[in-house]
């Protein structure tokens, strides 16, 4: 995720019981919402779902990071053409833990993020031998993981792309994956997690052009902008992404990682207040609960309080 996850990776507003019959088109942006999302499990700090404060007046999505179509049986790890494996801290974030947090909090959903930035220090590149074979493998492997953990959705966070995986190929693979998982009743929702990089944007905007109505949220990594970003500039960047992903539910974001190169949290929260006043704060996500653990989850608490207001 963003600038911080490109350095570190170790290895979601329907109720959870909603009927999975058809998937509705994406709602238009420019509407406040109480959606809060938190990535979890990538940094292996032992963080548990139950550690994170959950405001009952928010829709809270935990996003497991990550499932990756790479294998560590080779050195360096190598792509598997859509055969996904678990790379989050699954000794802590288990199927029983998912069941427990959802049972005790009816406003909680749990999703899984795909890809990420690195695996065992190696960049994760989106790689597909062919569209048909990648989609077939991805649908099969992800369905098994999602059903094992009783997950509700997926998030797409590929940040690098093999040369052959041009925007059209990426759009076809991910678009067919999302559509198939929804049509099969495997997931309720899907999100994408781009950031402001020309290559990244070209791939995700191609996906949006072909399959935007099947993508429910855009987890845009606004914290990947520089540390000198002002709140007004943050809001301007937000408006840019409304134009880049027309009709999309764009989420504001910040990172709790110990970094001096990302947008400061106070700046992001100030911008969120402005967006809320403009009726454009569809939701907020944080990268990541793993880092927030040592901070007492104070920013999860603040963000949810703002959304519940």
From TrEMBL:
<feature type="signal peptide">
    <location>
        <begin position="1"/>
        <end position="30"/>
    </location>
</feature>
<dbReference type="InterPro" id="IPR001579">
    <property type="entry name" value="Glyco_hydro_18_chit_AS"/>
</dbReference>
<dbReference type="GO" id="GO:0005975">
    <property type="term" value="P:carbohydrate metabolic process"/>
</dbReference>
<dbReference type="Pfam" id="PF00704">
    <property type="entry name" value="Glyco_hydro_18"/>
</dbReference>
<dbReference type="GO" id="GO:0004553">
    <property type="term" value="F:hydrolase activity, hydrolyzing O-glycosyl compounds"/>
</dbReference>
<dbReference type="InterPro" id="IPR000677">
    <property type="entry name" value="Chitinase-like"/>
</dbReference>
<dbReference type="InterPro" id="IPR001223">
    <property type="entry name" value="Glyco_hydro18_cat"/>
</dbReference>
<comment type="similarity">
    <text>Belongs to the glycosyl hydrolase 18 family.</text>
</comment>
<keyword id="KW-0378">Hydrolase</keyword>
<protein>
    <recommendedName>
        <fullName>GH18 domain-containing protein</fullName>
    </recommendedName>
</protein>
<feature type="domain" description="GH18">
    <location>
        <begin position="38"/>
        <end position="309"/>
    </location>
</feature>
<keyword id="KW-0732">Signal</keyword>
<dbReference type="InterPro" id="IPR017853">
    <property type="entry name" value="GH"/>
</dbReference>
<keyword id="KW-0326">Glycosidase</keyword>
